[in-house]
Amino acid sequence: MNKFVGLTRKFSSSSSLNAIKTVTVVGGGLMGSGIAQVAAQAGQNVTIVDIKPELLDKAQKSIHNNLTRVGKKMYKDDSAKIENFVKESYNRIQVSTKIEDAVKADLIIEAIVEKLDVKQELFNKLDQLAPEHTILATNTSSISINEIGAGIKRKDRYGGLHFFNPVPVMRLLEVIKGDHISEATYQTMMEWGKSVGKTCITCKDTPGFVVNRLLGPYSAEAIRLYERGDATASDIDTAMKLGAGFPMGPLELADFTGLDNKKYILEIMHQKTGLTVFQPIALLNRLVEEGKVGKKSGEGFYKYKS
Where is this site: Important for catalytic activity (predicted)? Predict the structure, then answer.
């Protein structure tokens, strides 16, 4: 694998004085690769950084397959246009195992493990290495962005960009305002979110932001309902899809996003809010301990074919 492998669609022009043209995504997992894909489709040059070469290989294959699906949806049976769309978009993406290779960007988005100390260490390093104009952003789903960025100097050029999985499909982007973000940075982040095709909402740095603050109790109660044997996983999911109009049931969604991630979010939310609805769930803890963390491991509340 080449250390830098070149992955485009027309860039949406922005009226912002600080329009984002180059993006670095730190983390080559599902979220990171999805963020990289939508940025590349919008015409931006992107570098994905991950310390694991195998994750970068997997990310590239996934992005190429996803771009092909997008191209077919956009251009139907026009094979020439499909091929051109995939080629141009794919060629805007590079990969690297070294963060030093990718800090010269207009925007750096962190999409790594949901652990405060690991994120803090990364942002402290990025703050030292990145050019002065670079905006730093975290994709955290539950940790306080003020705590993550506590050690950086460029607090005015730092905020939260919380995407949803799968990124190329989910239209929402939560733009999180830290205590010290400048208005120029906030507006630039909002404009960038729109440029990659997202509908942006704004939230203060509050536990769970908007979606997870509301989704957390719903998901937790669904797991407890299943844990008590009140209904099967399939019936719980069917009920919420057909009775409440949800595109996915709560247990399907938990499997898709990762039960380990769900467990960690509940822990953070319980720690920050003290609400009983976020208390630990024995079944969820057991599944995570057994390595049954959902679709990515082949089993969670459901079993999946590899």
Answer: 162
